[in-house]
């Protein structure tokens, strides 16, 4: 609606201005042309005045006051063609600025579409499908393999394996036994389970994420645009020069002549065009920046916060070590484990099969025990692969990492450990951000503290916050001290969506990330490359430097023209034309933000 309003004004001035020109110079109806231009000027001045009052009430100061004064002054002294030029510049600049601030998508449609819609309610051994909103606390629900847990609840049967990546961002499967709690939005594994509802759907974790994003987006950013920062001193300077010119000359026309060349064209045009150019440059580098204001804020960010899984790391659990504890070789141990689990759909089984470079052995009498492991007969021997207490009765020393333990004929042989690999470009990205003036780098993860700290040390991150759910990630951001703000959050999953929306700048790794994260972010990295984050920071800084230079160049030229016009040597309409020359210089300089440096 805002965009339509700005475009309507621009085309309104274009159409009626063209009609006025035709009446003046073709039909020689100068009086009617003057009435049309005056009417347009008065109408838009009133609309801008109302908006200016609303802006002032919100505690901000825009550039409209000087423009309104210029329009009114030129109309009052009969310089209506100069007024038309000012109106054309003003409405065109507003439309251009609105175009630069392209509409951010905050509907989170993908998140809403993926939320549980139906639950299988279990009453007297009869299963009935009901809307998830109809589930009450205490209801028993059947959750089949591969289905999403509809509400937060406690498992009445088990064990099973659940995937909580949509909530915590962690790809590691979680084993759950009867009596343990599960969160809505987590995906059930390969066994049907009965769940007792502990919360209604509206109060469950998945809907909390939706609610958190909406609440975060509803909070306005505490940010002042560059154009508004320059508006106050420039407006005061223009009024002082115009007032002095009128006072010493005694001619009100002199006031209009000064204000025409003082119209804030550089403030209205330079920043939006530089921002459009910067956004275009970002797009060429695989980064979609949704609004021009995002670039302004990104250039000032002091803290970058990163999700771990899928952002700092690759988001895939891969074989890290094969550790035999007997005379068996590591290659043979991995071959036996992969052969035993070759038909399993478990993510760890798939990783072992992918890492094994030996031919898979024939496995017979395969039996998979949900959430515990797989056993099979290979070469006449019973091989077990899975949890420690599944493969052997003796006590086994367990590593800190996720691991699959292997035994042959009841004798423990060793384990295969897994880790989420750090992105090869992560350390380079952190160094680049420090060099670009970012004083603080954070990692906020749902993973365990020891794992998060090891990864942070490897890539060069300053602070670690581990074991955090989505709401707790927001707490980390909101509790940052003032000297560490503004803050940018980088993430890739649905669980990151609230944090991306809450941060001053949200950056989504969108190549493989959740659509909901991309929709709630201010910028989206389309390439699966973390260095694009530091590139975005550099583009933002370059863009704002060019924008600032363009604004200052325009202000200096305008100030010189105001001083000259105060002596009465520049008629109002000539001053308006000079102002367009200033616009051209400003635009050409602002377009430098498109180029790579």
TrEMBL record:
The keyword Transferase does not apply. SUPFAM superfamilies: Calcium ATPase, transduction domain A, Calcium ATPase, transmembrane domain M, HAD-like. Residues 115-214 form the P-type ATPase A domain. It comes from the Bacteria. Its EC number is 7.2.2.21. The keyword Membrane applies. It catalyses: Cd(2+)(in) + ATP + H2O = Cd(2+)(out) + ADP + phosphate + H(+). Pfam families: E1-E2_ATPase, Hydrolase. The chain crosses the membrane at residues 6-25, 32-53, 230-249, 255-276, 546-567. Keywords: ATP-binding, Cadmium, Cell membrane, Membrane, Metal-binding, Nucleotide-binding, Translocase, Transmembrane, Transmembrane helix. It is found in: Cell membrane; Membrane. CDD domains: P-type_ATPase_HM. It is an enzyme of class 7 (translocase). It is a multi-pass membrane protein. Belongs to the cation transport ATPase (P-type) (TC 3.A.3) family. Type IB subfamily. PANTHER family: CADMIUM/ZINC-TRANSPORTING ATPASE HMA2-RELATED, CADMIUM_ZINC-TRANSPORTING ATPASE HMA4-RELATED. This is Cd(2+)-exporting ATPase. It comes from Levilactobacillus tangyuanensis.
């Amino acid at each position: 609606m805002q965009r339509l309003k700005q475009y309507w004004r621009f085309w309104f001035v274009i159409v009626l201005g063209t009609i006025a020109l035709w009446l003046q110079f073709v039909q020689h109806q100068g009086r009617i042309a003057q009435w049309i231009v005056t009417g347009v000027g008065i109408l838009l001045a009133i609309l801008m005045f109302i908006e200016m009052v609303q802006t002032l009430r919100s505690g901000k100061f825009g550039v409209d006051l000087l423009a309104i004064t210029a329009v009114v002054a030129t109309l009052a002294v009969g310089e209506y063609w100069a007024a038309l030029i000012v109106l054309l510049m003003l409405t065109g600049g507003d439309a251009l600025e609105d175009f630069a601030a392209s509409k951010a998508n905050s509907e989170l449609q993908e998140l809403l579409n993926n939320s549980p819609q139906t639950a299988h309610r279990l009453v007297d051994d009869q299963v009935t499908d009901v809307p998830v909103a109809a589930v009450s606390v205490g209801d028993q629900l059947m959750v089949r393999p591969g289905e999403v847990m509809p509400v937060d609840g406690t498992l009445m049967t088990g064990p099973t394996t659940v995937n909580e990546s949509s909530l915590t961002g962690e790809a590691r499967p979680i084993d759950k036994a009867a009596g343990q709690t599960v969160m809505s939005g987590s995906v059930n594994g390969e066994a049907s389970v009965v769940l007792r509802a502990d919360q209604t759907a509206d109060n469950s974790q998945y809907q909390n994420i939706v609610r958190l994003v909406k609440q975060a987006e509803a909070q306005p950013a505490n940010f002042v645009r560059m154009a508004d920062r320059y508006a106050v001193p420039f407006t005061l300077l223009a009024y002082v020069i115009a007032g002095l010119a009128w006072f010493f000359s005694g001619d009100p026309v002199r006031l209009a002549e000064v204000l025409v060349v003082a119209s804030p064209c550089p403030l209205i045009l330079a920043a939006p065009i530089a921002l459009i150019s910067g956004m275009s440059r970002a797009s060429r580098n695989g980064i979609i920046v949704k609004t021009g204001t995002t670039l302004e804020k990104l250039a000032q960010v002091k803290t970058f916060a990163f999700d771990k899984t899928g952002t700092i790391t690759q988001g895939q659990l891969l074989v890290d070590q094969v550790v035999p504890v007997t005379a068996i070789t590591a290659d043979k141990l991995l071959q036996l484990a992969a052969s035993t689990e070759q038909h399993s759909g478990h993510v760890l089984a798939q990783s072992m099969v992918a890492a094994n470079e030996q031919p898979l052995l024939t496995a017979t009498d395969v039996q998979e025990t949900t959430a515990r492991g797989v056993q099979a007969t290979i070469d006449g021997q019973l091989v077990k692969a899975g949890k420690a207490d599944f493969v052997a009765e003796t006590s086994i020393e367990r590593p800190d990492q996720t691991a699959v333990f292997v035994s042959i004929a009841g004798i423990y042989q060793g384990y295969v450990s897994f880790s989420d690999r750090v992105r090869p470009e992560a350390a380079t990205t952190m160094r680049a951000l420090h060099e670009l003036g970012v004083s603080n780098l954070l990692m906020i993860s749902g993973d365990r503290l020891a794992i998060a700290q090891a990864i942070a040390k490897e890539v060069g991150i300053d602070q670690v916050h581990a074991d955090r759910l989505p709401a707790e990630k927001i707490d980390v951001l909101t509790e940052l001290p003032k000297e560490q703000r503004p803050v940018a959050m980088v993430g890739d999953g649905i669980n990151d969506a609230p944090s991306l929306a809450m941060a001053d700048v949200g950056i989504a790794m969108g190549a493989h990330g959740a659509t909901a994260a991309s929709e709630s972010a201010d910028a989206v990295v389309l390439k699966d490359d973390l260095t694009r984050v530091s590139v975005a920071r550099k583009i933002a800084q370059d863009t704002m430097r060019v924008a600032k230079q363009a604004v200052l160049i325009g202000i200096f030229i305008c100030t010189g023209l105001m001083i000259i016009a105060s002596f009465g040597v520049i008629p109002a309409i000539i001053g308006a034309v000079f102002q367009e020359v200033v616009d051209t210089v400003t635009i050409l300089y602002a377009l430098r933000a498109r180029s790579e440096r």
